[in-house]
Design goal:
167 residues, mainly alpha, two-stranded parallel sheet, 7 helices, 2 strands
């Protein structure tokens, strides 16, 4: 499904094949002299290294709020709930976590283990935020739901307006 995962293991057998190819080329070209052989192998190695040389690459410029820095200075053991609840948008939340250094309620992984959303789905407010991206209109005990979050160590709810859908 993902060719980039295969490429990680591809370098070792390709390097063995490249070495055999260079050895065969040296034999065919009758490169007997040690200095010529060294120069030939050096030039081929330099070409390969040049091919894999990392050049300037565009990077993401993520602007983080100073709020995250202030959270890192705060005391206590607490978690942060980031909204919207979305596994793809959680990459941004995980980056911010490197600044504030507190647990977050959701994250991103390649394969979610079974029951990973049991806490979120057990809370009607969070379940609706995850599945429908909205607070259910008939939920009249929002304070009670927020109290449950507080009792479970979630001190802050951070709404990321730039990541919210525009629907």
């Amino acid at each position: 499904r993902a060719p980039d995962r295969y490429n990680i293991f591809l370098a070792l057998p390709v390097s063995v094949l490249a070495t055999l190819g260079i050895s065969n080329l040296c034999k065919q070209m009758n490169v007997v002299n040690y200095l010529k052989r060294f120069l030939f192998i050096f030039l081929i190695s330099a070409a390969i290294i040049f091919e894999y040389l990392p050049g300037p690459a565009p990077l993401q410029n993520i602007q983080l709020s100073e709020f995250y820095s202030s959270l890192s200075k705060g005391s206590g053991d607490f978690a942060i709930l980031n909204l919207p609840i979305d596994s793809q948008k959680s990459k941004h939340y995980m980056f911010a976590q490197t600044i504030h250094e507190h647990p977050i309620l959701q994250g991103k992984t390649a394969r979610f283990p079974e029951g990973i959303y049991s806490f979120i789905d057990g809370n009607p407010l969070l379940r609706s935020l995850r599945k429908n991206d909205e607070i259910p209109p008939k939920l009249n005990n929002v304070g009670e739901q927020l109290s449950i979050l507080s009792k479970n160590g979630i001190r802050y709810i951070v709404l990321h307006k730039e990541l919210a859908s525009n629907d």
